[in-house]
Amino acid sequence: MAVAFTKEESAETAAETLLPDRAISPHPNLVTEAGLKALELQMQEARQAYEAASTIEDVNERRRQQANPLRDLRYFVERLRTAQPVPAPTSTETVAFGSTVTFSRDDGRVQTYRIVGEDEADPKAGSISYVAPVARVLTGKAVGDIAVVGDQELEIIKIS
Asked: Which of 55, 109, 125, 139 is the most buried (most CB within 10 A)?
């Protein structure tokens, strides 16, 4: 068969399909029960997207469409493999992984965050990673304690 009748992949197409892996945190992969379930769901969604892209006939388009789900699958497989589920805190005496803590800042703002694993953190939705600076200084503290982050003082108002 003549080369003119074979489909060759261009360098541009090849580069589009070889995505770098998502960065994996060096910190222990602590997760809440909800965080573990979310990782499992995200892996399932990535698997479904990969399988859906597998039905595309054009090989170059199929590779392009599979690239993101394949990268996500590698990430979620690793995150699930290294997940360390942490039970919900049994006490509200001190701030711990899984606690919801309300604190006031020097400027009068009152904020509430739940301390969770890195993959489930979403500050806009009220959760921060346990490795975030605010979470690190609040962990182990009790209601009424003052924690310092940068040039700000945070006073713990409530732990739940």
From this structure: 139
